[in-house]
Amino acid sequence: MTNSFAYLLLTPNDMAAVDTAAAASGMSSIGLMDRAGRAVAASALRHFPGALRFVVLCGPGNNGGDGYVAAAALNEAGTRCVVYSLGDPAQLRGDALEARSRCPLDTQPLDNYVPLPGDVVIDALFGAGLSRNVSDSVAALADRLAATNTPVLAVDLPSGLCGRRGVALGAALRADRTVTFVARKPGHVLMPGRELCGELEVFDIGIPRRIVLAKAGSLAENAPSIWSSAVPSPLGDSHKYTRGHLVVFSGPADKTGAARLSATAGLKRGAGLVTVASPTDALSVNAASLTAIMLHAIDDVADLADWLGSAKLSAFVLGPGFGVGEKAREFVLALKGKRLVLDADGISSFKDDPDTLFSAFSEGETRLVLTPHEGEFARLFPDLAKDKELSKPEKALKASALASAVIVYKGADTVIASPDGRALINTNAPPWLATAGSGDALAGMIGALLAQGMPAFEAAAAGVYLHGEAANSLTPDMTAEDLAKRAGILPNKEP
After folding, report:
1. Any known ligand binding at 193?
2. List of domains in the chain
3. pLDDT tens sequence across 220-230
4. Is 156 annotated as a binding residue?
5. What was the pLDDT predicted at 2?
6. Contact 371, 439 (CB under 8 A)
């Protein structure tokens, strides 16, 4: 799905399949463990040169095996290193047992560990495959390390963090740094996992990319390499009509600001023409604040039908400040053959009858983009929203299939999902993007890209990423008006 291996995300099941395939190809599994553990030791020496003592916490599985290799390497390097184990090391199996046998250091029970000044903890208790809540003793350890501000270097993932969902399983250690192998997992980039991991390093332990790509799914980090080839570039003979006509529907006279924000962002994002379709009673309010953006009076669905039959309109945004109710539903159904971004009030208008919305856009190419935040997602997809066993990408993908729409499941870790099974996690949004009106600007940006002919998934992914870039170009005191004016920013170059 992406031209860059660096943006690939492997679920724990994907990673297990990669390990199995690597072993089947003749690669030594203990050799891979040795490379992983030595990479952890090298990171510890490089990033924590002032450590008085390295404390390696080893679990009962292969993550613990990585820890024993790291401990042996740190001991070889002449550092002061101690090892604590969760469970009886004599019960280890396979490569983890072999790694323990090669480590010359004595092992003490995990419950005996008391953090001392100058300690750096190497957390090798659990890896990405953990699926159950951690024990009370591990939860207490996490609290002790946090209370003493003891630096933590996590192996693969901070222990207690779900590699698939990015959530703490009862409790989780908070790492200053995390070293993972082959590729990142969803838990590294979904919130709150992204914050629990600290600085992240991905180390290549030698598994060929062909094996990794053969077992990888369609989940990646959102990045320009995925969609940049679909972004239209104005040609020498371009004119406003070839760059698309975006329509943004306005709410009543006292709720017009959101539509203008969306329209401004759409114009800045490259739509050749942008029209605010306004109720008659709101025309004067909108006209007082618009110049390059046009106005057209639309009071009811009959007006809309007449306009659709007489004008060349490329894409639509409905929802920002529009109002919840029958009018919104009628307008959306009148647009069922069109390219539409449905946001905010437009989404909430279908909370009692989502199937009508879904069926209206179920045929032909994907034309509908839904942009719900957490609450709006729960209104359209209540069963998915309350399922705690599903990750955010899994929820978004299931919702996308149900709705025959691209889903932009908003948040600090916005997920973009397509009915064809592709999903992206966005990571470039700064905290100050959480401000009133920022979602209106996003809807306009996606609408503009749809109007210019981008496929729905690529338009949504590009809009989300460029929305983050626009916010990053501003200071934390930005407003949505500032953001809309920066909607035309170009993406930073990728590494």
Report:
1. no
2. 5-217 (3.40.50.10260), 224-485 (3.40.1190.20)
3. 999 999 999 99
4. yes
5. 43
6. yes
Confirm or deny that 410 is annotated as ligand binding. yes
The stretch 77-88 carries a mean pLDDT of 97
Annotated binding-site residue? 251: no
For residues 168 and 130, the answer to whether their CB atoms sit within 8 Å is no
The average pLDDT across 162-167 equals: 97
> What predicted TM-score, i.e. pTM, was given to this entire model?
0.95
Taking the C-alpha atoms of residue 277 and residue 246, their distance in angstroms, rounded to an integer, is 10
Q: Specify the pLDDT at position 491.
A: 80
| Sole residue written with tokens 């909370």 | 351
Residue 133, annotated as binding a ligand? yes
Annotated ligand binding at 338? The verdict is no
The answer on whether 362 is annotated among ligand-binding residues is no
CA distance 42 to 47: 9
11 assigned binding-site residue? no
Does 321 appear as a known binding residue? yes
Residues 46, 40: Cα–Cα separation, whole Å: 10
Residue 159 is labelled as binding a ligand: yes
Q: Is 127 annotated as a binding residue?
A: yes
Cα separation, 310 vs 135, in Å, equals 66
pLDDT given at position 241:
62
> Is the distance from CB of 62 to CB of 41 less than 8 angstroms?
no
The mean pLDDT value for 14-26 works out to: 96
With 0-12 / 13-18 / 19 or more C-beta atoms within 10 angstroms meaning exposed / middle / buried, residue 296 is: middle
Residue 439, annotated ligand binder?
A: yes
The response to whether 413 counts as a known ligand-binding position is yes
- Return d(Cα 35, Cα 28) in angstroms, integer: 11
Provide the pLDDT for residue 1.
43
Q: Is 79 annotated as a binding residue?
A: no
**Annotated binding-site residue? 132:** yes
